[in-house]
């Protein structure tokens, strides 16, 4: 248990604390043109609700490309209505093909090919920018060496335990990938809020190395191409993108199963670091319960728990507030063990259930 605590404190003090110390930046002045790419499959209600906020960003030169991927719910008609009054909206339509099984990576590729500008910003049809300054924060950085920007996308607050767990898991995932990027070891991103150069996509042959994997258009691409020199992060509140959360346990399990499936194709060093983190945290709680049940080790175990809580509660509640999850900070001691139990359970499910798909 003490060894697991040491590992736990390493991630807390030497990785995640970097994110808390990251100074916010002022809203930059718009400089270069950019293309926003959105893939939509039967997303008519979400596009009607969220697309206007993307089309009215405070940015002088940008286009919005929506890839209508084999939709049958009226998505195409709705996009045509938007395009009639929004000159910056461009539509790419993918039709059904019995001889070719398309997926999200194919849709993303079509959107990238249609983009007129070098800098590409990605989000989803069910996403809402936190402000009209989103694109100013996600625009091409001043340093030309930066090819990838990692953003943050929290889920909207709903009632219930499932929503609390979803938001906490999203927070923990973001703290991890953003902190490791600051440490010089970027390993993933979320497609709801990220950006990279069009030339990087084609230089690295796009998704060719993992086109056979249904998920991973965001994290696997970043895992393969991000370095400590070409990757930066954006965590300012105006740069966040809100997203609609799953509302049932089954749909959430399916979503996370896709993510776990993609994680098996991360670089080996990233797999080792992430597996060590999850396993050590889970074992910490297992050993803690066992030690508390034994009279001879009960007080020592409580002392170790106290050290863990004091250190972690000095950092994570503040990060929760900074990353728009402040309402969860009082539930941190309860959600933390729940999360690692869930991640372990989901990992076991992913071993036995292989089939996943997009929409």
TrEMBL record:
Pinpoint the Glycosyltransferase 2-like domain residues: 35-143, 167-335
Q: Where are the transmembrane segments?
A: 272-292, 299-319, 331-353
Q: SUPFAM superfamilies, alphabetically?
A: Nucleotide-diphospho-sugar transferases
InterPro entries annotated for this entry?
Glyco_trans_2-like, Nucleotide-diphossugar_trans
Keywords linked to the UniProt accession = Glycosyltransferase, Membrane, Transferase, Transmembrane, Transmembrane helix
Q: Does the keyword Transmembrane apply?
A: yes
Instruction: State if Ubl conjugation is listed as a keyword.
Output: no
A GO molecular function assigned to this protein is: glycosyltransferase activity
Q: What's this protein's family per the entry? A: Belongs to the glycosyltransferase 2 family.
Q: What is this protein called?
A: Transmembrane glycosyltransferase
């Amino acid at each position: 248990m003490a060894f697991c605590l040491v590992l736990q404190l390493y991630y807390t003090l030497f990785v995640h604390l970097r994110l808390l110390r990251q100074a916010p930046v002022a809203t930059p002045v718009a400089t270069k043109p950019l293309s926003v790419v959105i893939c939509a499959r039967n997303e008519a209600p979400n596009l009607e609700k969220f697309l206007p906020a993307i089309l009215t960003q405070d940015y002088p030169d940008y286009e919005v490309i929506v890839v209508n991927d084999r939709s049958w719910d009226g998505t195409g008609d709705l996009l045509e209505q938007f395009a009639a009054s929004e000159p910056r909206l461009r539509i790419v339509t993918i039709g059904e093909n019995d001889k070719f099984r398309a997926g999200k990576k194919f849709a993303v590729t079509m959107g990238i090919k249609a983009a007129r500008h070098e800098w590409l910003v990605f989000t989803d049809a069910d996403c809402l920018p936190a402000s009209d300054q989103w694109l100013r924060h996600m625009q091409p950085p001043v340093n030309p060496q930066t090819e990838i920007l990692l953003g943050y996308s929290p889920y909207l607050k709903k009632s219930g335990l499932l929503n609390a767990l979803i938001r906490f898991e999203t927070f923990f995932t973001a703290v991890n990938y953003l902190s490791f990027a600051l440490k010089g070891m970027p390993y993933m991103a979320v497609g709801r809020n990220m950006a990279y150069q069009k030339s990087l996509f084609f230089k690295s042959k796009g998704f060719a190395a993992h086109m056979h994997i249904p998920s991973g258009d965001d994290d696997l691409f970043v895992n393969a191409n991000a370095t400590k020199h070409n990757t930066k992060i954006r965590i300012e509140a105006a740069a966040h993108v809100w997203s609609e959360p799953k509302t049932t346990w089954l749909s959430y399990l399916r979503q996370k199963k896709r993510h776990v499936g993609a994680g098996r194709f991360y670089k080996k060093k990233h797999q080792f670091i992430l597996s060590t983190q999850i396993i050590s945290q889970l074992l910490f709680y297992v050993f803690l319960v066992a030690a508390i049940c034994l009279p001879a080790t009960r007080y020592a175990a409580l002392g170790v728990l106290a050290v863990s809580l004091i250190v972690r509660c000095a950092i994570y509640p503040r990060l929760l507030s900074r990353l728009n999850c402040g309402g969860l900070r009082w539930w941190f001691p309860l959600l933390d063990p729940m999360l690692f139990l869930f991640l372990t359970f989901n990992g076991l499910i992913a071993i036995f259930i292989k089939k996943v798909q997009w929409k």
